[in-house]
Amino acid sequence: MHMLAAARGTGRLVNSSSRRCRIEVRSLQADRMDADGRQLLRLTSSATHSRSLSTAAVAPRRPSTAPTTISTNTSATSYNTSSSSASARLSQLNNHIPNKVSNISTALKYSTTATTTPDKMSAQAEHPTVLIPGPIEFDDAVLQAMSTPSESHVGMPFVHVFGDTLTQLRQLFITSSPDSQPLILSGSGTLGWDVVASNIIEPGDEVLVLHTGYFGDSFSDCLATYGAKPTQLGAPIGSRPSPQEIENALKGKKYKAVTITHTDTSTGVLSDPKEVAEVVKRVSPETLVIVDGVCSVGCEEIRFDEWGLDVVLTASQKAVGVPAGLSIMMLSGRAIETYKSRKVPPGSYYASLKNWLPIMQNYEAKKPSYFATPSPQLVRALNTSLTQILSVPLSQRFEEHKAASKKIKDAVTSFGLKQLASEERFQAHGMTAVWLPEGLTPADILPHTAKEGVVFAGGLHKQAATKYIRIGSMGVSVTNPALGHVDKAINALKTGLVAAGYQLP
């Protein structure tokens, strides 16, 4: 399984008796210019190594079929641009590789050359290992994708990347419905709340918010800001509302939507969107099912079509594996029709689906359009990360996160500690929230773990913030075990506890 992590890059790894890594970059050239003037750069490489290691993925573009033309009534201006020569593009790229690497071949070599310590298996500058519930550690190839030169956000090279990335999101969310629509907006995951509250929900609408921590409170505040009437259905810290409680709430009042925080980052509590959606469909089928998947998309199973979800929103900086700055959403056809039947205009300008739906439809159809400027570098990084994620079955990725999570949680138990989410079925697989020993606070522990080169997060739940810490285990820290991040987290926690005066069992 772990050899798959090594195979995600462009290098091909083969066992050898020699204990060194040799990577041969045979060529980096433009294969052709397509009808739109797009450059297709292909990088081929081979490598030998005596043991499994991770290779940065700079995957060649997958061929795509011509999309169906989508007609819109938008008045957005369209532009056509021609690409510069491939050799000029390569010259530009060579000048924008991080860490003063002189050319792409060297950058690839640096990102795949191993030394005797796991932390050296990266081209990144020395830094503490960030193991919080987001932002997470990033793969070299993702960061390199952000180091491209400036380009036009309506030029065809970028339009093709953006369109491909929107299509990749359909695979990530497991939706094949032609009525669903992915969105990629510049902003944090919180922007997804605004999109929901200002477009799909109208002033005066009743919304049932399933509360499992801090982010249930925050989503409620956002909904109320736009005039909705949120009702929170809560549970004790570390738990979640039961199906029967949800059913009773739905029978007691007509709700426009139910919101679910799939993983509440403040508590590490995992909700079950499939279970909730089944209750909603049985009791109140007209009610929309909206999932906050900021800390779950990419590490927890989500089946958008099969489960009957209407909105899933997330962000780039967690299990999706891209630096912060992108708000990512998937809307169902029913959610879009709900927006279109609004009685009043959307309550936001930047977050308005009136502005964004035509733009996303056009980009996915490889047609340049403009409403507000996206980030070409972040979108290219997202494309790189999604290429890596989708290079193996999603089921395998989810199992890898479960295994890493279990290893950390088993260690927590062996240290005599408990989690906020006391029952296994309530425990997220991308993070762990750990109650500290009596008398200790995050301020007593975190400075010691920092000395071990590891960054954990303090508590966030307003009722218990000083009593626990949070450990993230998402993305490359899980899928590239050669980095040793999971073991490093466990050792840092153990060392920090002892240094703070705690006596291990």
TrEMBL record:
GO terms for molecular function: alanine-glyoxylate transaminase activity; L-serine-pyruvate transaminase activity. Residues 43-83 are annotated as: Disordered. Its EC number is 2.6.1.44. Residues 167-462 form the Aminotransferase class V domain. Residues 43-55 have a biased composition (Polar residues). One of its GO terms (biological process) is glycine biosynthetic process, by transamination of glyoxylate. Keywords: Aminotransferase, Pyridoxal phosphate, Transferase. GO terms for cellular component: peroxisome. It is an enzyme of class 2 (transferase). This is alanine--glyoxylate transaminase. It comes from Arthrobotrys oligospora (strain ATCC 24927 / CBS 115.81 / DSM 1491) (Nematode-trapping fungus). The lineage of its organism: Eukaryota, Fungi, Dikarya, Ascomycota, Pezizomycotina.
